[in-house]
Design brief:
heterodimer, A: alpha/beta, Rossmann fold, 5-stranded parallel sheet, 5 helices, 5 strands, 49% helix, B: alpha/beta, Beta-Lactamase, 17 strands
């Protein structure tokens, strides 16, 4: 039961250096451990190695797109249960729908207020924990 | 005439003139023969008979050009001789030979048509006298014939010729005039060919012209009347030509030319219409291309701008706890930054929404409720600006298929534009009513590109202000994307473009009527359902 007491790890995958820097500053101030990756490949490696509690994923990135990262996270048995929040500058129903179809749990549009992001992270973490305990109960 | 006589004399010089001499006295006959023989340049063939009866026989055979005859002959005396010869050979000149004491009789003979008389004794003295007399006799005879011939020429001319004296009394009509204008006699000066002749003569005299021509309609025909005036004899002569056929032909030609010109004009109009259509299509294509460009630009910009906006906002978020504790002013500055970010983002979102329009959710909706909802939202702002709001929705306005929210956005856009045009207050009126379209107009016509057909009933919604109006030169551009009159930073010129896109999405049209200084009226026209349209006959009212 020490699980909920440990520092939660957030992995942010965003090609924008300043966005990563600010997210790190803000989330660390709120008590999170923050990992950042500048592209999809780097993010996937970090996720595999570090097993973050939540992933903040940009969609529009060069080379490996956010959707591709999302798809590969879902394919990986070790990573598929990590909740992913899409953080994007794009707008439009279709992009959001695609994100949810690929397994994202939440979605936020840039520019956003930090408190809104924090709220979404908390909800995502709570949901993930619920599911995990559900699975644990089922296993027992 | 002179020329003709000259020719005649010449002919006589060359030719052989057969002269018949009727003379019972052989001495006198001898005298004549001698007189003729002395004339070198003229060849006369003289045939002599001593009785009238013989002369008449000879004349009957023909070929005699002239008769010389004594009056007193054994078988005929005096004027009887002349009469008998004349009767046998009409047209052959006769010269009478007389004794000195016979002159009275000779003069009587002249009156009977004899050409000349000669006293035998004088011929003895002046032989040339005979030849000269014969020559003149022949000339005169032929001259008379020519005059008659010329007179008959005029008489037989197929075109009417008429002559009047200066007061308009007819002095001559040829046969054609008599037959074609049989009513000329007794119709006085009111007959079409006589009417105004006196005036014409006076005009001719004044102008010094020799003739004038006028057109005379007569019993379904048209004549060209050439009028001449002869002041010395005070005679007016007219020569008329029947030009009915020519006039009809000219009329037909004129009609054909007019028809050709009309066809040409029609073709030109069609060509012009096609050109205008092409220009409209071109304008629409340019507009569509602009829209597509806006869309592309928007999605490109969105990512590039919203990322830094996000970073700025997060910077604000990061600094907030520290700066808030350092005083209200710091907090206020942060708030200004935040608002600037939000405004920028709103513009970006507007662009995005415009380039990817949200589908319409059409439901039967009361336009009155949309108007009420829109007015409610702007009421506070109107009060603040000193603007009175007026609403007038006709009773017979039916429910129409609308996306309530998007139509509300349309009305609010128009209302806010109107407010901006009334900085010192004024009146804003929203009206809605049914109208039956009677004639083609803006996008009202039979082309497939037209939204409406004449005869259709439509719902009209007007937003009218008493503001500054829109200058004529910019009115055509107000719907163009990125066209704005607002200072930089206060609008990007998509408001009316989005408004028009929404209205057109509803199958409607929007137009602006404006006069600088006299306010602006936005007119939205929306289709009403077909059932309503059919039953709505005559219900168009305000």
């Amino acid at each position: 039961m020490a699980e909920h007491l440990r520092r939660r790890t957030v992995l942010m995958i965003d090609d924008e250096a300043n966005a990563r820097k600010l997210a790190k500053l803000l989330l660390e101030r709120e008590g999170y451990r923050v990992l950042t990756a500048a592209n999809g490949e780097e993010g996937l490696i970090l996720a595999k190695v570090q097993q973050p509690d939540v992933v903040l994923l940009d969609i529009l990135m060069p080379k490996t797109s956010g959707h591709e990262v999302l798809r590969r996270l879902q394919e990986d048995q070790d990573l598929k249960d990590i909740p992913v929040i899409i953080v994007t500058a794009r707008r439009g129903e279709q992009g959001i729908a695609a994100s949810f179809r690929l397994g994202a749990v939440s979605h936020i549009e840039k520019p956003y207020e930090t408190k809104d992001l924090l709220q979404k992270i908390q909800v995502a973490l709570a949901l993930a924990q619920q599911e995990e305990s559900g699975r644990a109960t089922g296993d027992a | 005439m002179i020329y003709f006589l000259e020719g005649l004399i010449e002919g006589m010089d060359d030719g052989h003139l057969n002269v018949l001499l009727i003379e019972d006295d052989p001495q006198d006959a001898q005298l004549m023969q001698e007189a003729l023989g002395e004339t070198a340049n003229t060849s006369f063939a003289l045939e002599w008979v001593d009785r009238v009866s013989k002369g008449l026989e000879r004349l009957a055979r023909g070929g005699i050009d002239l008769v010389l005859t004594d009056l007193q002959l054994p078988d005929s005396q005096g004027l009887e001789t002349v009469a008998r010869v004349h009767a046998q050979a009409e047209g052959v000149p006769i010269i009478v030979l007389t004794a000195l004491d016979d002159e009275g009789m000779a003069i009587q003979a002249l009156q009977k048509g004899v050409q000349d008389y000669l006293v035998k004794r004088y011929i003895k003295v002046y032989p040339n006298l005979l030849v000269r007399s014969m020559r003149y006799a022949i000339e005169r005879r032929r001259g008379e014939g020519e005059l008659i011939r010329l007179a008959s020429f005029l008489e037989q001319c197929p075109d009417p010729v008429l002559e009047t004296d200066g007061s308009g009394v007819i002095t001559y009509l040829n046969r054609a005039a008599r037959t074609q204008f049989a009513d000329l006699f007794g119709s006085a000066a009111t007959h079409p060919v006589l009417w105004g002749l006196k005036d014409a003569a006076q005009r001719l005299q004044r102008s010094g012209a020799t003739s004038l021509t006028r057109e005379v309609p007569y019993r379904g025909k048209t004549y060209e009347q050439h009028i001449s005036y002869y002041p010395q004899s005070d005679l007016i002569r007219s020569y008329l030509i029947d030009v009915t056929e020519r006039k009809q032909m000219e009329q037909r030609e004129r009609e054909l030319a007019a028809a050709a010109a009309a066809a040409e004009r029609k073709r030109a109009a069609e060509l012009d219409e096609a050109y205008q259509e092409l220009k409209r299509t071109q304008a629409m294509l340019i507009q569509a291309e602009k829209m597509a460009a806006v869309g592309q630009l928007a999605s490109g910009i969105a990512h590039e701008v919203r990322n830094p906006l996000g970073i700025i906002l997060q910077c604000v978020n990061y600094l907030e706890p520290d700066l808030q504790s350092r005083g209200a002013q710091h907090a206020e500055v942060l708030q200004v930054i935040r608002e600037a970010v939000m405004t920028s983002d709103k513009i970006i979102r507007g662009l995005l929404d415009f380039s990817r329009p949200t589908p319409l959710e059409l439901k039967p909706t009361s336009i009155a409720s949309v108007i009420d909802a829109s007015l409610a939202l702007v009421q506070a702002q109107a009060a603040e600006k000193g603007i009175r709001l007026m609403k007038d929705v006709a009773d017979d306005v039916p429910l129409v298929l609308l996306d309530e929210h998007q139509m509300q956005q349309v009305l609010i856009n128009l209302i806010l534009n109107a407010f901006a045009a009334m900085p010192t207050g004024g009146r804003l009126s929203i009206r809605s009513y049914l109208r039956r379209l009677t004639e083609p107009g803006l996008r009202i016509g039979l082309r497939s590109a037209d939204a409406f057909r004449p005869g259709q009933t439509v719902l009209v919604c007007e937003v009218e202000d008493t503001g500054t109006g829109i200058p004529k030169e910019i009115l055509p551009r107000v719907f163009h994307p990125f066209f704005t009159t607002k200072p930089p930073g206060e609008g990007i010129g998509l408001g009316l473009t989005i408004t028009a896109a929404i209205v057109e999405g509803h199958g409607g049209t929007i137009s602006l009527e404006s006069e600088e200084g006299n306010g602006t009226k936005a007119v939205i026209t929306l289709p009403v359902s077909q059932d309503r349209d059919r039953n709505g006959e005559g219900s168009a009212s305000r």
